[in-house]
Amino acid sequence: MRPFIFCLILFAPMYGISQVSPCANAIPLSCGQTMFRNTNNMSDKFNSGHYSLCYNNVHDYHGKDIVFEFSTNSFRNIHFNLELFDDVEMDLFLFSVCAGLGVVEPTGYTECATTTFVDYHTGHFKRSIDFAASPGTYYIVVDGRDAEQNGSFELTMDCECECNESLNPAVAAKAHTEDFEFFDWNGISFQSNVWRKWNSEAGDGAVQYEDHNQHLRIREQIESDVIYKLTDVPPQRLRISMSIFVETGKRAYFNLLNKLPNNAGSGEDLVGAFFFEPNGIGQLNVNASPRITFPYQQNSWTDIMVIADPDSDVIELWINHKFIVRWTFSESAIFPFALQGVNFYAVTGADFKVDNLCVWRRTNGIIPLPVDPVCVKNGTQYISHFLADDALFANDEYGECNKICDYGGEFIYRSDQIIGTIDPDDKIPGSLYFENCILESYGGSIPENV
Q1: Is 144 within 8 Å of 86 (Cβ atoms)?
Q2: Does residue 206 have a pLDDT over 60?
Q3: Average pLDDT over residues 343-352
Q4: Secondary structure element (H or E) that encloses residue 437, with its range
Q5: CA–CA separation, 287 vs 275, rounded Å?
Q6: Of 68, 173, 360, 427, which has the fewest CB atoms closer than 10 Å, so is most exposed?
Q7: Dihedral sign (CA 381, 382, 385, 390)
Q8: In this predicted structure, which of 2-11, 39-48, 128-137 has the lowest mean pLDDT?
């Protein structure tokens, strides 16, 4: 078997079109459906001119093509998984409007959202499209790179993209998910449209199978340097979660990108860099300067969650559902602010695994406001749990709302001497964990037993 190489294209609405749409006879496609088709008996409706902003015109795309159609009435994450059963090279293109050919408009066909075409690799077996869909109707075109590239393929549309966490679906929707289960045991960047190498010379991340599970492996030996792209998600508040496993005595590293590097690997803009050291201590650097350290366990999966809100100028780091620190885009990035990607890089001594990536966004749905105050472990109180849900927090991140005065107690005076014992359950109220004086007194990392 050999795979298709894909290219996703989103086109703006067009007006004044009189020609018949080439998608008029599109094959309906729905969530959970698998299609087996062959292009040999089809016609050639599209060519490279229609894909110019998504593609570098190395091929003319005069192969025969097939068009599929699907609709969604909500924000959702959709995966398209394709396999090729003939020795041919074909690509996939995605349209939000499929209008008559030959029409020239200011907002015409060639507004490209993303592509999975890569120049440096062909002949791989599987490709996956990870698409952050908004409500609407879309058309998928499978097209041969030249007149000889025609054959059979299998296309699956998956809308049940799973995460290891649950958020309120009334206010939160999955934009991207990644569990690596579909891919071949090979480099990731040429198997998915949302993964790329830092530049063409960088090492790839390897999809690996171990203990009945597939994950991404980042190792110094192959100089892995890959980016998980979020550029198809409009700038907004996002929740990014993942699990990282650092081998004993090894290191791990990732960073958050306000701006992706160009194809040559320069021009990037970081908003935070995360180091995981062999001694079980992690460190966040902001503007290349240490901001805070935190403990983690080697040879074990660590759950990491980041809240990134460019509109509110806020970024938060959580480790194993515990709040660690908050900082801002403005102190570390160049305006305009937007989380465009996550970079996993094999620093010296690196050997780690990545799994269960999940990106959530707001749905902007109607939020009921019953007065049922809830607090989050970062020290924020919301008048309703719906507002906390809308801020993309999960139940595991909720905490107590009590303050010191809520506990009561005896009046004491300056000369009084207090003798007593402290039990392990006598902890400070959650609302104090974010007070600057307390953070500073513990060097920015508050122990669990305070």
Answers
A1: no
A2: yes
A3: 97
A4: helix 436-441
A5: 14
A6: 427
A7: negative
A8: 2-11
Cα 318 to Cα 392: distance, rounded to the nearest angstrom: 13
What whole-number distance in Å separates Cα of residue 378 and Cα of residue 449? Answer: 16
Instruction: Return the pLDDT at 112.
Output: 43
Contact criterion met (CB below 8 Å) for 286 and 296: no
Residue with tokens 């009046």: 411
Q: Which two tokens stand for residue 240?
A: 């990014």
> Cβ(196)–Cβ(230) under 8 Å?
no
Per DSSP, the three-state class of 412 is: coil
Residue 26 · residue 70 · CB < 8 Å: no
DSSP sequence for 339-404:
--EEEEE--TTBEEEEEEEEEEEE--------S--EEETTS-EESSHHHHHHTT--GGGEE----G
pTM of structure: 0.79
User: Residue 374 is which amino acid?
Assistant: V
Instruction: Evaluate the omega torsion of the peptide bond into residue 13 and state whether it is cis, within 30 degrees of 0.
Output: no
d(CA 130, CA 113): 12
As beta bridge partners, residue 281 has: 295
Strand 27-28 to 65-72 pairing:
parallel
Q: What is the pLDDT of residue 332?
A: 87
